[in-house]
Amino acid sequence: MVFTYKCIDALSPYCPCYLAETQSCIVCSVLQGKDTCDCNWQGFCVYQEYIWNGRKKKNFRKALEVKISEKKVINENLAIFKVMLPLPASSRDFSQPGTFVFLKSLDSPSYFELPLCVMNANEDENSLIFAVQVIGPKTKSLVQENRGFLLRGPYFNGVLGLKHIKAAKGKNCLLIGRGIGQASLVLIAKALIRGENEIAALLDPGAINYNLAEDYLKKLNVAIKFFEKEYLVLGDIVLNLIKERNIEMIYSGGSDIQHDLVKSIIIQSSRKIDLVISNNALMCCGEGVCGSCAVTLGSEKIKFCKAQLENWGA
Ligand code: FES
Questions:
Q1: Is residue 140's pLDDT more than 90?
Q2: Residues 148 and 233 in one domain
Q3: What span, in angstroms and rounded, lies between the C-alpha atoms of 195 and 165?
Q4: Which residues have CB under 6 Å of ligand 1?
Q5: What is the pLDDT of residue 312?
């Protein structure tokens, strides 16, 4: 299978980036050091932007100091934070589905930075909500913080198949969230509601023992069902919902095992259903520079902090 992809940052204020300067652009063959132009045209020429910008990168994401205005310790595994963005930063720039940031507590060294999904963005108060599951030293240091964080972002590639969310209009959609994967459901639900889509959600508390997205989704009038920790049960529930609600798009927020299961159920249903999944690649820099998110697909190494697969789930 040949995989085609677009760069999530193309057409954003962050293109061209460091990869153009180092002849490593993921989409522009000229900015990869080749002689010929051979890109997967996105309606936008990265090379032209690079020339117009004086052969250098545009804006780069700087770390902002953000204040914690609310902290809820839900249980020993989970804390939820509300942080206030300092002007001129705007929470609107963090409200696209799949947006994530890198966070660290104020006194930790830079290698404590951790990628974290934006759970909700409130434009009236210029605030963001994050949920932190305690897993290791980085997450422990975040949940111990009471004053503020250093925040670097926004980064946009937290979900794969974003085009299906952006294009969805009047569709029947199903959101599936397990454990901390539920944090990504809220911005997706908001975007789908703007497109006048019908939404149902399936939630499992998973390892965090808490349904993070429940209150937010209820306020958005999303019909919610719960599933237990057994994936066999999930398979049956999803298949029934696909038939009952004539589901046309599914978002899976959770592990790769969950994504594979959902994909197999879609195949089993024999229906044309768009699949969107949470991006579980290991992120370290978010800029396409370190290579920690690279996955070999076919003959290519694809950097998943930048690449939106075009034919995922097709
Ligand atoms: S996270 Fe560093 S290259 Fe993708």
A1: yes
A2: no
A3: 9
A4: 283-286, 288-293, 303, 305
A5: 54
- List the residue whose alpha carbon is closest to atom 3 of ligand 1: 288
Query: Cβ-count burial of 146 within 10 angstroms (0-12 exposed, 13-18 middle, 19+ buried)?
Result: exposed
In this structure, are 99 and 199 located in the same domain? Answer: no
**pLDDT computed for residue 229 by the predictor:** 63
The CATH number given to whatever domain includes residue 74 is: 2.40.30.10
Q: What is the pLDDT of residue 41?
A: 76
Q: Which domain holds residue 124?
A: 63-155
Q: Ligand 1 pocket test: which of 155, 292, 295, 308 has the largest number of ligand atoms within 8 Å of its C-beta?
A: 292
User: For the segment 60-83, what is each residue's pLDDT rounded down to a tens digit?
Assistant: 899 999 999 999 999 999 999 999
Last-in-domain residue among 155, 184, 213: 155
pLDDT digits (tens, 9 = 90+) for 14-65: 999 999 999 999 999 999 999 888 877 777 899 999 999 999 999 889 999 9
Atom of ligand 1 nearest to the CA of 293: 4
- Which two structure tokens, joined as six digits, stand for 143? 């949940």
Number of domains in the chain: 3
**Tokens coding 233:** 């049960």
List the Cα angle 221/227/230 in 5-degree steps. 160
Closest atom of ligand 1 to 303 CA is 4
From the CA of 143, how far away is ligand 1's center (Å)?
25
* CA 303 to ligand 1 centroid distance, Å: 6
The alpha helices in the chain, defined as continuous H runs, are 18-21, 46-52, 137-144, 162-167, 185-194, 214-219, 231-245, 256-269
Task: Judge whether residue 85 has pLDDT over 50.
Answer: yes
- Could you give the CA distance from residue 110 to residue 270 in angstroms, rounded to a whole number? 48
Q: Per-residue DSSP letters for 39-58?
A: ----SS-HHHHHHHTTSS--
Q: Are residues 310 and 285 in the same domain?
A: yes
